[in-house]
Design brief:
17% strand; 34% helix; alpha/beta; 281 residues
């Protein structure tokens, strides 16, 4: 395992691969304001041990990938979706199973419509097509971010505390947050992030609307995984997404929030590693 930088035009993308490059590929796409380290290395190793070539990467404005000045994201969601295809090209991969968390699931939907020939299967985790009738996020989410609007991004300890507080706020009631592991990952993220404030650019990115109104046109094998206590993207979003995509089905994680708790790794790894390999698919 070692980081590899992919150059796609003027954009540099930091990636990391696990497993054998001769095995079927799985590309993991993380959510907004989060670098690839939140796909825990142990999770990636275990997923690769199922006989897959697993790649995780930093989206723009996270980790070691290209960052833009805070408040000035010069790209769209379509550009971010195309970044994933550039990564496949650089690794010489014709098709992959795309597994996206939150914003990563939004990008997965765009990829499945924009580049269906590159998608062998699609796993959408804690995400949505944001149909207008669906419930809004829990008020505690906006309250948390408003309370940290003046965060001093140069104070590394404060940023770690912010990250810990965010994941505690997003967690469901079933499993206690592993605070020690969260602190370790938050510090690791900071060590490989030149300007963490740029992560807020994800909240300003536009585009994708024409694709999110076409989820019923997605024609690749799709599964949806959603927690019943997700405060950012409430559970009905997952239910609706599974109903909107032809042939899709829903895996419900009871008591789970907007998170990937270690206690559910077996379920997640089994779901991702086996999906798309059944003859019926």
């Amino acid at each position: 395992m070692s980081e590899r930088f992919i150059q796609a035009g003027e954009v540099r993308l930091c990636t990391e691969a696990f497993g054998k490059n001769t095995d079927p590929a799985i590309l993991l796409i993380m959510g907004a304001q989060s670098s690839m380290i939140w796909w825990d290395r142990d999770f990636c190793r275990r997923l690769a041990d199922t006989g897959h070539y697993v790649i995780r990467y930093d989206n723009r404005d996270t980790g070691r990938s290209t960052a833009y000045p805070p408040g000035q994201p010069d790209y769209t969601f379509e550009d971010m979706a195309d970044d994933a295809i550039h990564i496949l090209d650089a690794y010489g991969i014709a098709k992959a199973h795309f597994a996206g968390m939150s914003m990563g699931g939004l990008l997965g939907q765009i990829i499945a419509l924009r580049h269906p020939e590159r998608v062998s299967a699609l796993t959408l985790i804690m995400t949505s097509n944001f149909a207008p009738h669906l419930p809004e996020m829990d008020g505690k989410v906006m309250k948390f971010f408003m309370e940290h609007a003046s965060l001093n991004w140069s104070d590394r300890d404060a940023v770690v505390r912010f990250s810990l507080g965010k994941w505690k706020m997003l967690a469901g009631s079933k499993y206690p947050l592993d605070e020690d592991r969260t602190r370790i990952l938050a510090r690791e993220e900071l060590e490989r992030w030149d300007n963490p404030e740029s992560m807020n650019n994800h909240g300003l990115v536009t585009g994708g609307e024409s694709y999110l109104t076409r989820t019923s046109d997605i024609a690749v094998p799709t599964q949806v995984i959603h927690g019943t206590e997700d405060p950012i993207i409430p559970y009905p979003h997952g239910v609706h997404l599974a109903e909107a995509i032809p042939g899709a089905f829903l895996i419900t994680l009871e008591g789970v929030g907007h998170e990937l708790p270690k206690e559910e790794w077996n379920t997640l790894i089994d779901a991702i590693s086996t999906f798309g390999q059944h003859p019926a698919l």
